[in-house]
Amino acid sequence: MPQSLSFLLIHVVFSTKDRAPILGATIRPALHAYLATVARNTDCECYRVGGVADHVHLAVRFSRTITAADLVEELKTSSSKWLEMQTPDLAGFSWQRGYGAFSVGPANLDDLRRYIDNQEEHHRVHTFQEEYLAFLTKYGIQYEERFVWD
Predict the structure, then answer these.
(1) Most buried residue, 51, 68, 91, 96, by most Cβ within 10 Å?
(2) Could you read off the pLDDT of 63-89 as tens digits, one per residue?
(3) What is the pLDDT of residues 95-107, one digit of tens each?
């Protein structure tokens, strides 16, 4: 086979350090646009970015040449530096150490987009911790909760 082709769609989730609710409504649209640009600069296709004050979600189609760990490292490193330059309130900003990356079938892309678009509504009822543990359970990921949070 002379050509390498793939369609790997993932849902990436990560939070601010200690889940601090410091991503205000005024900075989030620019942050989401910035994260989408960072993903695209790694040759990934970014279908959606969203979130609330303490975390972000991304729907990303992977490039053939990058790993989940490399993509998330680039997203977090670049956006941390960018956020620190936006306002003195975000000086020293950092994301949590870990992240979640969950596979999504192409047929579920529209559902994932809707889910990301409705984060404000979703988090009126559920905390980030509840949401994240539900993802781990849904995807059958074994975990010890004492090691999930930093």
Answers:
(1) 51
(2) 988 999 999 999 999 999 999 999 898
(3) 999 999 999 999 9
Token duo for residue 33? 């646009």
d(CA 147, CA 31): 28
Q: Where are the domains of the chain?
A: 9-148
Going by the DSSP 8-state scheme, the letter that residue 12 receives in this structure is E
Q: What is the DSSP pairing of strand 100-104 with strand 55-61?
A: unpaired
* DSSP letter string, 20-80: -----TTTHHHHHHHHHHHHHHTT-EEEEEEEETTEEEEEEEPPTT--HHHHHHHHHHHHH
Q: How far is CA 124 from the centre of its chain?
A: 19
CA dist 28 → 67, 120, 142 (Å): 26, 12, 32
Q: Describe the strand order of the beta sheet including 45-52 as a list of residue ranges.
A: 45-52, 55-61, 9-15, 100-104
Residues composing the chain: 150
CA distance 41 to 65: 12
Question: Token pair for residue 54?
Answer: 């303490």
Domain 9-148 class, CATH top level = alpha beta
